[in-house]
């Protein structure tokens, strides 16, 4: 039993909307992370190529300026801007740093030329960034080694540029450094000098992806919340709360409108069918019982007219009387079956104080218990409130208790216990009767099954020639059997079947087992009201 249950749970998990929502969320989180890693690796390769190209460009410009700077002196400084302008353009900018021989350390570097011309404030900002990152400190030690840069700067005017390389040139006058920077879209649109996620492409893609993910998740959540409202409404309908709520009124998803309307029609059909069954049961019972009463009244004059010494006449009257009793029992049985079917279509689920109901009902059995010399023990926990219907519970208690009474020998005890067990209320009825044949214990809740014996039953079987002899039998619909020792009611083997059907209709369960000390125990689990 465990393996099928586990497989069922696995299928439920795979088909669950909540599980799929979690799966979609995981996919929406994992996919961008994987794609981001791949794109970032590709961008790093692109960034390396760009920086290598800029570094080579800086080396070429430095080699072109090296002959001039090798013999430079202070008189050359005013003309350096003109020399740099030969290699610069509107997108490629050149700046020249100088640290005289007599000035040690990184603080000795100052800008002495720029092409195109740049405001001093921009040059100061750039020099400060080079100092902060230790680039000038490394140049001050050796004045050698071409260093690729990846520094993104914002000028005083708000324009952006990317420092791409710094190439040192050692001369007798001091240490020169040619700084190249670019402001083309190729460099500014790349991730050079900034995290990859800050690039316009990634941010635009992230916005589109987040919007798409939000739409999908909102769609899932909208359907899920609508289904949860449907579930809550179904519970209200089952519990007969809030008048006559409508699925269509609770629906917020246009695509589910037809489904909601179908649910409303189904609920209305079930309610109408239950009402029609109850009316039909009452009408049919009235229609049959009226002629039965007429026939019974008509027999009274016949009983007085037919002489007692005529053996066949009185015997015929007795057979008619018994047949009328059976017919009256069949009519009552049919009515109970139809009412039971109506309750199955629309089981009542109201709050009922089971403790009070039990005490009230069991007090009515005092006379019958005294007549049978039986003792009733009550162990009832107070204020146990269940969700069911009073009529339904009365039928359950009546059938179980009367079953225990009918099988109990004189001077025996019947124990009725009511207690709480988690979210369920547990009702147990124990008797000291003969119990049930273990081979039939699973069948006592079947329809028409009975273990009763009686002489009257044997007589019925002899007259009808349709039954089977023995202590255990399936009682045919048209063949009632009277319990031994009583002549007050007819039994059709449906009492415990109605108990199980009613209990399961309200979400409970019922089981039976033989007691070790003899007798039968019937346990009923009922959902408690919250």
Automatic annotation (TrEMBL):
Protein name: histidine kinase
Xref: Gene3D superfamilies: 1.10.287.130, Histidine kinase-like ATPase, C-terminal domain
SMART domains found in the cross-reference section: HATPase_c
Positions of the Histidine kinase domain: 283-530
Catalyzed chemical reaction(s): ATP + protein L-histidine = ADP + protein N-phospho-L-histidine
Alphabetized GO MF terms: ATP binding; protein histidine kinase activity
Record EC number: 2.7.13.3
Transmembrane segments: 21-39, 206-227
Species: Skermanella stibiiresistens SB22
Protein origin, superkingdom: Bacteria
Keywords: ATP-binding, Kinase, Membrane, Nucleotide-binding, Transferase, Transmembrane, Transmembrane helix
